[in-house]
Each structure stands twice: as C-alpha cells, then as structure tokens.
Amino acid sequence: MALSAAALVVAVAVASISAVAELFWLLFLDYCPPATCSAENAWIAVCVALAVAALVTVIGGMITIARIARRTIAWPVACGTLILCAGACAIGFAGYVSATGI
User: Which has the closest alpha carbon to 18: 76, 80, 77, 96?
Assistant: First the structure.
C-alpha cells in the first residue's frame, strides 16, 4: 500500500512539475522563425501531452484506489501509472523540441 501511494504521489509531482515547466517554456517562446519553428505545433504538443498525463494519472489513481479498497495487489497499477505519466510528459517535451527546432 505504501509503494502504491508513493508511486501515485510521484506521478502527480511529475505531471505538475512537467506542466509548469512546459507552459513556462511556451510563455517565453519569443523568437520563433517560421522556417524552422511552429509555435502552434509546440502549443498543441504540450497541451496534448499534459492532457494525456493528467488523464492517465487520474484513471490510474482511481484504479489503484479501487484495488486497495478490494485488498488486491495495487502497486503494479500505480507504478504503471507513474511510467505512463512520465512517458507522456517526455513525449510532450520531445514534441516541443521538434516543433521549435531547438
């Protein structure tokens, strides 16, 4: 149960820190030459990645809590939630880098 709770807390922390960092990068995207950069694609990549990370975290948290309440093994679901959340955030960062040409 402690491992499940820790994994969910870390997943929420990863999603929160990633949201702040990626939105901060978008706010300071001052110079974006049209030939190599697309601010719109960067915005879409970041927003979709953060939405997926949030959705995965919420659904994974609900399933983990339900498994804990039923007294079944819940830590694999919580760890999978953490991995999927971190993966979605990493893909959002990669999409931002690809769209901006950094």
Answer: 96
